[in-house]
């Protein structure tokens, strides 16, 4: 591990411009599920459900495989997968203590990412695609980088970052070579790459740091822990900008399991272990709404934002958020009104939500423990496609090649590649 401490001031972190936030004095509004029912599902979905839904995990029954490509090298549960920002490559990590970079067009192994002594649970590409990070239950974070400039077929080990006890998540800065990691020992770490120098170790959480994000503008960090504390950070300081926790009864979520920040970096949506969702103003550090919609006692596992305009116009206001939970529901929320637009339904827990890039940013992909992935039109809640082929829960997914493909990670030890393009009529 490289030694030394990089200066956080070296990152281009401008002071935030005047932020937008909910008006009307930010009065707390409790929005209950208004009775919206899941959208009617088309015949294709019914057929896929009939084929897959009744199968027991690991059974020998028939599953219609609609994938374009398989990657079966892990041979044990695959916990993480991430698509390269520009190239037809994916990086996956699994229970076999290994990571792989592989070609999503033919399944060819490009690089075997070794060195972990326990399950690899996180894989993440740098914003420019020149580095890949793997994080594991062994607490190691290992970094590889591309060799040369001719192609993306050769990778070399760069450095190993140490500090966390067990890696809970990895996030790269949206514009620079700075890596964020959460640990189960209640710490949050920030490193400068390729030097590997530690920039900050954030203390203030009281339990495993389950989730964290850079704000989309890259100027702040938000993190949350299993004990229910949410902390907003300036990367240049180890002192929180603000902190919310279960000591405030309105924010008691029985532990935080997911967070998301809207594209304008003004609001955070926070999901809890008991099904609760809170909306927080990042400029004021206050709760501005409580959202219903999910079944009490069911954990909110995924949050993303969709731009219903498809033009980027939806990235300037409060935004449209989607929350997914173990009740199988994905709830679409208009944060300008705090109203529920639609409820989408899987037959088992939702594990991942993905928003397409522009110009199809109104498309949403959900992955589920029901062994399927589904592509939806978030504007009206219409199911466009059901992606089948996994024989066990889908544990993760990533969009690649400008949103034209989905790469999934399964508890069956397989990664599958699906197209998101509309079927020919």
UniProtKB/TrEMBL annotation:
Residues 1-60 are annotated as: Disordered. The lineage of its organism: Eukaryota, Fungi, Dikarya, Basidiomycota, Agaricomycotina. WD repeats lie at residues 71-112, 113-144, 165-201, 202-243, 343-386. It comes from Gymnopilus dilepis. InterPro entries: WD40/YVTN_repeat-like_dom_sf, WD40_PAC1, WD40_repeat_CS, WD40_repeat_dom_sf, WD40_rpt, WD_repeat_multifunction. CDD domains: WD40 (cd00200). This is Uncharacterized protein. PANTHER family: ANGIO-ASSOCIATED MIGRATORY CELL PROTEIN, MITOCHONDRIAL DIVISION PROTEIN 1-RELATED. Residues 11-57 have a biased composition (Acidic residues). It holds the Pfam family WD40. The keyword Glycosyltransferase does not apply. The keyword Cytoplasm does not apply. Signal peptide: none annotated. Residues 1-10 have a biased composition (Basic and acidic residues).
């Amino acid at each position: 591990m490289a030694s030394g401490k990089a200066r956080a001031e070296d990152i281009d972190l401008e002071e935030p411009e005047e932020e937008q936030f909910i008006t009307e004095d930010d009065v707390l509004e409790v929005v209950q599920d208004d009775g919206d029912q899941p959208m009617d599902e088309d015949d294709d979905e019914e057929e896929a459900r009939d084929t897959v839904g009744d199968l027991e995990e690991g059974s020998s029954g028939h599953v219609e495989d609609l994938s374009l490509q398989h990657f079966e090298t892990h041979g044990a549960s695959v916990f993480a997968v991430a698509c390269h920002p520009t190239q037809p490559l994916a990086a996956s990590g699994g229970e076999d203590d290994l990571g792989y970079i592989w070609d999503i067009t033919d399944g060819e192994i490009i690089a075997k990412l070794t060195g972990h002594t326990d399950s690899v649970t996180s894989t993440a590409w740098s914003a420019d695609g020149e580095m890949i990070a793997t994080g594991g239950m062994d607490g190691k974070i290992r970094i590889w980088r591309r060799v040369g400039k001719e192609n993306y077929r050769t990778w070399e080990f760069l450095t190993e970052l140490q500090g966390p006890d067990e890696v809970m998540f990895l996030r790269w800065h949206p514009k620079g070579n700075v890596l964020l990691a959460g640990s189960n020992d209640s710490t949050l770490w920030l490193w400068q790459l390729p030097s590997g120098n530690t920039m900050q170790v954030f203390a203030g959480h009281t339990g495993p740091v389950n989730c964290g994000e850079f704000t989309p503008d890259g100027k702040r960090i938000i993190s949350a822990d299993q004990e229910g504390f949410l902390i907003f950070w300036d990367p240049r300081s180890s002192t929180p900008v603000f902190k919310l926790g279960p000591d405030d009864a309105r924010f008691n979520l029985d532990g935080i399991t997911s967070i998301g920040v809207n594209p304008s970096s003004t609001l955070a949506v926070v999901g809890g272990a008991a099904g609760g969702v809170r909306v927080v103003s990042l400029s004021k550090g206050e709760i501005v709404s409580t959202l219903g919609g999910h079944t009490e006692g069911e954990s909110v596992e995924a949050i993303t934002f969709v731009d219903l305009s498809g033009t980027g116009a939806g990235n300037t206001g409060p935004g449209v958020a989607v929350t997914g939970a173990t009740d199988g529901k994905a709830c679409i929320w208009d944060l300008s009104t705090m109203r529920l637009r639609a409820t989408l339904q899987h037959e088992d827990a939702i594990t991942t939500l993905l928003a397409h890039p522009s110009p199809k940013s109104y498309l949403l992909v959900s992955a589920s423990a029901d062994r399927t992935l589904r592509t939806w039109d978030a504007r009206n809640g219409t199911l466009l496609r059901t992606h089948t082929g996994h024989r066990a829960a889908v544990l993760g997914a990533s969009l690649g090649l400008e949103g034209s493909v989905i790469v999934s990670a399964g508890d069956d030890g397989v990664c599958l590649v699906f197209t998101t393009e509309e079927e020919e009529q």
